[in-house]
Amino acid sequence: MSAVTGSPAAAPSVDYATLAPDSPLPPDVLAAVVFGGADSHLADPRCIRVRLPTIGGYGVAELWRASGPVRTGRDGPLRFAADAEHLAGVIELDEPRHGGLAAAAEQAYSAIRRFQTASQYPHLLRIWNYFDRINHGRADEERYKQFCVGRAAGLGPDCAERYPAATAIGRRDGTPTLQIYWLASRTPGAPLENPRQVSAYHYPRQYGPAAPSFSRAMLVSQRLLMISGTASIVGHASRHPGSLASQIDETLANLESVLERATSVQPAIPARWGERSLLKVYLRDGASAARAEAQLAERLPRGVRYMILEADICRSELLVEIDCVHGLSSG
Ligand code: 3EB
Q1: 26 CA from centroid of ligand 1 (Å)
Q2: Using CA atoms, how far apart are residues 212 and 160, in angstroms rounded to an integer?
Q3: Which residue, by CA, sits nearest to atom 9 of ligand 1?
Q4: Which of 214, 240, 318 for mutating ligand 1's site (highest number of atoms within 8 Å of CB)?
Q5: How far is the CA of 210 from the centre of ligand 1 (A)?
Q6: How many Cβ atoms are within 10 Å of 253's Cβ, its own excluded?
Q7: CA 144 to centroid of ligand 1, rounded, Å
Q8: What number does CATH give the domain 8-326?
Q9: DSSP letters of 235-285?
């Protein structure tokens, strides 16, 4: 694998911020991912609203800042904002109107793939997926597994083993909207795997008819690492069912392992968590937020910032998942 990725100056920067409801988004914003209940900025095409309750940690919005002038546009159900190097896109499909979750995922992913391939930003780097009732349904009918089937069909074989880093998380808002947003680039990133885990795209059949199409992390630039949703999974098996504290420790060990892998490939990535690390902590049980926060504060260096969101995780025994942006490009 090549360590050469996009030039450092070209990477978008990512930060958590509290948005002032009455002031417009700054012009250099590529995307403002607003979590929780706030209704501000929805009219701005760069605003992506994720209806997951925020229950702790820092800030309510994740801002992706451009490295030059931003233009916005639409293509069918898909909308985007882009600078010269990067594109932030979002698609939200109503499941019943698209034939159910698997069909909606297939249509969303084939629309994304077609759009990106035809654009100046053909490389998918990082993608987030949110939908309702992720653990509903038995065995292969579980909605997460159905989502994976549709995603794999929509992406097609082209991207195999060059998958974007990803997060797939369940909402509980009772709204059957499949919501997907992503970062794409003119130049490729470098996908990374975690030596402690079987690559998700090689998971055995027991986890569903189609293996999940994502990489464990993406080196977006020489100084920016985006880590996929990471949970208490070693090899391919879930560890520590029923123990949130042990799942948090195992998850942190997985994140550490990915970071080590990233710095071995790209030495400009900061080797330790710190002020350049932003975590999103998805917790199945909101009532455990204070405990989780205390454990994270004990384990992580000061200065690491995190958001805690109440959400469902793709395997019903998993109580926590964490994704991460590390090594902010222009900070
Ligand atoms: C895992 O490691 C936990 O299907 O896009 C994490 C990140 C997980 C992304 C996805 C799933 C996804 O398998 C679940």
Answers
A1: 32
A2: 11
A3: 167
A4: 214
A5: 13
A6: 15
A7: 10
A8: 3.30.1330.40
A9: BTEE--TT-HHHHHHHHHHHHHHHHHHHHHH-TTS-SS-STTEEEEEEES-
CA–CA separation, 45 vs 110, rounded Å? Answer: 22
User: Which residue has tokens 């008819």?
Assistant: 209
C-alpha 313 – ligand 1 centre gap (Å): 9
In 68-176, DSSP assigns E strands to 71-75, 78-82, 86-94, 123-132, 165-171
Distance from the alpha carbon of residue 119 to the mean position of ligand 1, in angstroms: 27
Atom number in ligand 1 closest to CA 200:
13
**What is the pLDDT tens value at each position of the chain, 331 positions in all?**
344 444 444 678 999 988 887 789 999 999 999 998 767 777 899 999 999 999 876 658 999 999 889 999 999 999 999 999 999 999 999 999 999 999 999 999 999 999 999 999 999 999 999 999 999 999 999 999 999 999 999 999 877 779 999 999 999 999 999 999 999 999 999 999 999 999 999 999 999 999 999 999 999 999 999 999 999 999 999 999 999 999 999 999 999 999 999 999 999 999 999 999 999 999 999 999 999 999 999 999 999 999 999 999 999 999 999 999 999 755 4
Point out the ligand 1 atom lying closest to the alpha carbon of residue 313. Answer: 14
- So what's the pLDDT on residue 329? 53
| Domains of the chain by residue range | 8-326
Integer angstrom CA distances of residue 292 from 248, 266, 288, 299: 8, 31, 6, 11
Distance 168 CA to ligand 1 centre (A): 6
**Both structure tokens of 253:** 């060990």
Q: Which residues line ligand 1 (CB under 6 A)?
A: 129, 166-168, 200, 212, 214, 228-229, 231, 233, 314
Q: Which atom of ligand 1 is nearest to the CA of 207?
A: 13
Cα–Cα distance measured from residue 301 to residue 251, given in angstroms and rounded to the nearest whole number: 16
